[in-house]
């Protein structure tokens, strides 16, 4: 069964005190317990948040990981480390990582493997740039990202993945894909999964939309047949907005 999911991606925002304040405020919001609610703060918050979240329905995600267990990788954090502080999900392949840190889908596919090997769940991001959409190559772009990042997995492994479609032109810009534009891509993603695996897996995978999701547009987006929720940046930094998003299905 497909799950409705709201995942807050805090990106590189909020120090220890600010993070504690926001999480405390989020915990006071009416969060719909039927919705899988996930928070992805910067690494420094994870251990404390794991304690603060005990007894709540909110799960923890990391925003990235390395693909080795340990070793000489200065500045990196492994999945084993993340798991040891209660992380259950890892965002992988966010466009900001692809653009600013030169991560390609092949590199990301190793991270996907590593996350799954440790029994955590990847939230695999894909999305086209404005130029790619204008050139009409957005379907090809998404297909390539999905194939390279995920299609080496077996069916069981793929079932443990969540996909997030995030058009780069809609991230942090205030410009949202229309529900029709987002639905079209989500349906397309399901169709390529159905072709590579089978229609049942395609139906069961949760596909989130990301890109300027906020309380004023979430309900319409989440009502679309193939949109199972949102990966939310800006609006997840406001406790009330974040709470409202979980009540937008
Ligand atoms: P945004 O970010 O909601 O601020 O557009 C979404 C994301 O990058 O995950």
Which key features would you list for this structure?
single chain, 12 helices, binds 2-phosphoglycolic acid, alpha/beta, TIM Barrel, globular, 8 strands, eight-stranded parallel barrel, 249 residues
Structure commentary:
By secondary structure, the protein is an alpha/beta fold. It has a single domain (5-245), classed as Aldolase class I (TIM Barrel, Alpha-Beta Barrel), CATH 3.20.20.70. The protein has 12 helices and 8 strands. It has helices spanning 16-27, 46-52, 79-84, 95-100, 105-117, 130-134, 138-150, 155-159, 179-196, 199-204, 215-222, 239-246; strands at residues 5-9, 36-40, 58-62, 89-92, 121-126, 162-165, 207-210, 229-232. An 8-stranded parallel β-barrel has the order 1-2-3-4-5-6-7-8, surrounded by 6 helices. The model has no long low-confidence stretch (mean pLDDT 97). 2-phosphoglycolic acid binds at residues 9, 166, 171-172, 210-213, 231-235.
């Amino acid at each position: 069964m497909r799950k409705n999911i709201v995942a807050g991606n805090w990106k590189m925002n909020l120090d220890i005190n600010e993070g504690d304040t926001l999480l405390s405020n989020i915990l006071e919001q009416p969060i719909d317990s039927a919705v899988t609610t996930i928070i992805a703060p910067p690494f420094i918050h994870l251990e404390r948040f794991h304690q603060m979240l005990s007894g709540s329905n909110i799960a923890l995600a990391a925003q990235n990981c390395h693909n080795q267990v340990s070793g000489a990788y200065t500045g990196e954090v492994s999945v084993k480390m993340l798991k040891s502080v209660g992380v259950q999900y890892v965002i992988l392949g966010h466009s900001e990582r692809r653009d600013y840190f030169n991560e390609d889908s092949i590199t990301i596919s190793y991270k996907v493997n590593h996350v799954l090997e440790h029994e955590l769940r990847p939230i695999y991001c894909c999305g086209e740039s404005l130029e790619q959409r204008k050139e009409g190559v957005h379907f090809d772009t998404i297909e390539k990202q999905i194939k390279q990042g995920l299609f080496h997995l077996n069916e069981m492994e793929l079932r443990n993945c969540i996909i997030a479609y995030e058009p780069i032109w809609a991230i942090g810009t205030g410009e949202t894909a229309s529900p029709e534009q987002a639905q079209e891509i989500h349906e397309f993603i399901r169709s390529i999964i159905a072709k590579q695996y089978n229609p049942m897996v395609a139906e069961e995978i949760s596909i989130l939309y990301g890109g300027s999701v906020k309380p004023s547009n979430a309900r319409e987006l989440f009502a679309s047949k193939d949109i199972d929720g949102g990966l939310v940046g800006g609006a997840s930094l406001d406790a009330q907005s974040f709470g409202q998003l979980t009540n937008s299905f």
